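Task 17 of the worksheet. Students: predict the tertiary structure of the chain below and write it out as structure tokens. Keep your answer in the requested format; marks are given for formatting as well as content.
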Amino acid sequence: MRTAQRVRSGLRGWGGVGAMATACVVALVFALLLTCTGSVAHRPARSGAPAGPAGGGVAGAEQAVAAEDCTDPEKQTLAPSGDDGPAIEAIKNRPGEKRKLVVGIDQNSYRWGYRDANGPDSARLEGFDIDLVHRIAEDILGDPDAVQFKAIPTDQRIPAIKDGRVDMVVRTMTINCDRIREVAFSAPYFRTGQQVLAPKSSPVKGYSTLADRKICTATGSTAYAKLAADQEAGLLPRSADIGTTVPNQLDCLVRLQLGEVDAVVTDAALAASQAAQDPTVELKGDAFTTEYYGVAMKKDANDLVRRVNRILVDFREDTTGGWQDSYDTWLSATLGGDSSKSEPPAPAYLRTD
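Model answer:
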């Protein structure tokens, strides 16, 4: 299976504006509900990770305090544990065919969470985030395919968690101070930063050259928050038009292809994947922030947060089928063979003793 994945990962995603626009319309109109049908060899859960309380109480209170006094949001998470608690038990106790992990994902992010239209199974979701979802389901439910995927737009990630529509979101979601006031995050599993994407022929050269340009970002994204904050602080010219926002990041690429905007600002990891889909665009300048992706869950789901953190420790340490293998399969073609710039720092956890 790994060999087949590597072959498919060399293929491009959607080709051309028409196919991309169709994909975006589908993403905007439907919140697709999918059951994953892939196969991953079962691995027994590991032990030996630091243990901690599974429920709320002290840990929940400490998370709330940390969120109010936020300086390093990527460090505001709980120590790993393999213990079950209320959140995990609720997942395990779902009856019959509903006994699945319900996960919010993206279906349109090339190499992260997408369907390969050129592959043998165009209905199957695959990518770096999807590999991680399988790993979490395998650990919690003993079956990597015990997943119900829900495709959700960028601006619905936090509402979907808070409303209980999903158990977690694994969707290139940046950990930041505003978000940890509303949801809980795992330790980081990927490092990236904001970057500019524009046509190769464009005079735009990077973030400092966005004056008088029309810029597209995803609604609710850290990219928009950064642009708005920089304009307010006078770091981004007022002539930069940041009014174009879309539900899903891929929609920005379509707007760029149609000439409706001059540039896109998004995570460098996503921008690189979009540039791989369209050879007429490229990343401009360097990344101008440092950000970390995390798995997002409900604020009071402490046992689930701890379990995911333990899974992430194993995922990073595994030499076969772990973080590095997933990077090589899905992201090396767009981000380069050296994964060191994308590896998150060693995790730091809140004290709960």
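Marker's comment: The first helix runs from residue 2 to 9. The chain has a mean pLDDT of 85.
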